[in-house]
Amino acid sequence: MERLQYIAAIPLICLLACGGQSSDDTAPDPGDSDSGQPGTNTGFAVSGTIQDYNTDETADGTGLCVSIVDPTGAIAGGKYVVLASTTANIDGTFEVTDIVTSSAFGILMLVASCDGDTSNVMYSASGIALESYQNLGGGDAIVDRTAWVIKDGYGGTLDTDLATAGYTGASLTTTGALIGYVDDNAEAPLDNATVSCDNCVAETFYWGEGETTFATAGATNTATNANAGAKWIIPGAPIFTYHADAEGYAFETLLAGTIAEMAVFVAFSAE
Fold first, then answer.
1. Burial classification of residue 205, based on how many CB atoms lie within 10 Å of its CB (0-12 exposed, 13-18 middle, 19 or more buried)
2. Protein fold of 3-149
3. Is 176 helix (H, G, I), strand (E, B) or coil?
4. Residue range 81-101: mean pLDDT, rounded
5. Which is the most buried residue in 4, 119, 168, 176, by most CB within 10 A?
6. How far is CA 44 from CA 68, 70, 83, 127, 136, in A?
7. Cα 242 to Cα 233: distance, rounded to the nearest angstrom
8. pLDDT digit string (tens) for 218-257?
């Protein structure tokens, strides 16, 4: 499955970083829609597969819900709006229908536990850029999308391993996190790349092949490891311009950040 499918539009991530919160304090109710016309099929559809970020395999969809979210309200520190939701199929596939939106900042595929249990499933958001839906009408569809999720308590494992690597902040389910990878220009995981922001308070940790996720032989990993998917994470990432660096490669910068309780998935791919 193509890794680049979960890149979120840059303006969308900026909105997420501006402090927006959920439309309520529980997981979105499957079948609810803020379009005002549920079940009329006046909007477009989004379908795809939920992917487990821990295993890089298709997730078991049991108990998972997928919502399409408009984050526009977050620009003023308000709430995002759930446009439409569905319950995922057991095989990890999903289809959300009747989506109507005027968002100019992209939309999100938000995966969560249907019962709102964030101890087992972390709110996990993957973006869809404006260009993908701005000309769609009723009955049109966006297909074959990948919606990533942190589930089966993997968020707790990351908390433990981050602490082992020297992180002293709060749990990811409290702070949220910016999570991604670095690819070369052939879309393959890139070794020895770093991700950072200038003059901001942000710690980047890197997946590796050591005894814990973010440390090898007792030392905290300091760059990406291609064998571990070139993955990285920034807990509680503040809104800032982030950049990837790797010898011999150039990358566009990314205005990015996250919000409390949510994992936001992004990527750097070499030009």
1. buried
2. Immunoglobulin-like (2.60.40)
3. coil
4. 97
5. 176
6. 11, 14, 11, 16, 6
7. 12
8. 899 999 999 999 999 999 998 889 999 999 999 999 887 7
Token pair for 159: 């908390």
CB within 8 Å of 199: residues ≥ 6 apart: none
pLDDT tens string 117-164: 888 999 999 989 899 999 999 999 999 999 999 999 999 999 999 999
| Third-level CATH fold of 154-269 | Immunoglobulin-like (2.60.40)
Interatomic CA distance for residues 133 and 205, integer angstroms: 34
Enter the pTM of the model: 0.83
In this structure, the number of other CB atoms found within 10 A of the CB of residue 151 comes to 23
**Do residues 67 and 193 lie in contact, with contact meaning Cβ atoms separated by under 8 Å?**
no
Buried b (16+ CB within 10 A) or exposed e, 234-250: bbbbebbebebebeebe
**What are the tokens at 253?**
């910068």
The sign of the CA dihedral 59, 60, 65, 68 is positive
CA distance 229 to 227: 6
Q: Pull the structure tokens for residue 250.
A: 């150039």
**Residue 256 near residue 266, CB atoms below 8 Å:** yes
Residue 162 CA to residue 226 CA, distance in Å, equals: 19
Half-sphere exposure of 20 (CA within 13 A, CB side): 24
Nearest alpha carbon to residue 258 among 222, 233, 224: 233
Give start-end residues of each CATH 2.60.40.1120 domain in the chain.
3-149
Closest CA to 225 of 190, 250, 186, 195: 190
**171 burial level (CB within 10 Å; 0-12, 13-18, 19+):** middle
Segment 100-115 mean pLDDT: 92
* Contact yes or no for 115/18 (Cβ under 8 A): no
